[in-house]
Amino acid sequence: MSIQIVNSLNRKKEELIPVKKGSINMYACGVTVYDKCHIGHARSLYVFDVICRHLKNRKYQVRFIRNITDVDDKIIAKANELNKPFAQVVSDNIGLYKKDVTNLKVNFADVEPRATENIPEMIAHIESLIAKGKAYESDGDVYFKVKGFAAYGKLSGQSTEKMLEGVRIGPDEKKKDPLDFCLWKKAKAGEPFWESPWGQGRPGWHIECSAMSMKYLNCETLDIHAGGRDLIFPHHENEIAQSEALTGKPFARYWIHHGLLKINGQKMAKSLGNFITLDEVLKRYSHNVLKLFYLQSHYSSEIDFSWEKMEEMKIAFGRIEMVVRKLEENFGPRALDPDQDEGMARITGYWEDFLVQMDDDFNTPKALSVLFDLIKTCNQLLESQDPLKGAKLSYALEVLLRISNALGFDFTTEEQVLSDELKALLEERAQARKARDFQRSDAIRDALKAQGIIVQDGKDGQTWIRA
Ligand SMILES: [Zn+2]
User: Which of 79, 135, 207, 336 has its CA 20 to 30 A from that of 221?
Assistant: First the structure.
């Protein structure tokens, strides 16, 4: 058993071997807080949550850090647009971000540091780079000397000549070389600023991640650095350059990048009017349904969102939910040893199969097929006369819940919001069926349906899901 990861650094599938045996230090680039999370951000939050869950299921001690970029041109522009103080825009959007993470039901990282709370570490990093001759000051700005770092381009696989083609040089350019990137930016009038050895200014975006990852993971070589594919160049390329120029050590052993999200085949952009926020989706579908949509594609692939697909996912998730509910309501804690019965071993084997699929570069489409296979087995058992049916289904429930937890599903939400009135109707219907009053039970079924509750009858009683 070992976890294999396709490492963006060399585009090869490699065995995960952490710096320290048994523990993983992982960092992901987080949100820039100038707006609500859209469903591309949500994919990032969820993908790395699932990866962390799997690492923990494989008994790694995981320390996970995800930053919050709370100073940036986009936030300054937003504050100007809204005519609000900068700090207000930041705190409003951090509030929205936290709400989004909570509603998506993914775990927060162990620490979610804010850039502006770590300025001294960034200044120290920049000062060391200047002292080593790897960076220089120019009229209040500080730049990293790209040509002084021979390995520049190793992540994105580009030559510096190629990069130069895409670089524009402005008339007020303070750089010595067009490829050099900004580590510290001099403040313009009216912009937020911090004091530094180079005057009032603010850190560049790239330096934030280098300084905060090394600080909060307390190491110079991270095990895993994660982010969206759109961050490979220049952001991650620059993180590598400024980190390795400082420490002389590899910055991260494995780079994991998730693919981007499109809407009906188009890039998501405010200007195209197809910008979909997470809260908009969660108003219409549960977090489980959205997660099932993300899981259908491998994390590294591009994914295409549509409302039609969400409808399909809702039906598919309903199949999982229905089985879980039936088992929870009708089959108690397990009573038999799985080793004593072949059929039982087959059921517990689903968990191992699931883990094996996840070991293979977190292959969620294949892991999902294990889950749906188990659902099928459960449905067959439910209809069978197997004398060990009860015991087998108790095991199956345990495995189902374990897999669901590994994928961040939960089944509590819907139940909690079921009103007392609906609960009473369900109970009344169960009684009517017991008394063989089918006219009454059918009438209640229709009444429930009108309120969005679909009731199904099985050998072991009725179950319900939301329409
Ligand atoms: Zn970053």
Answer: 135
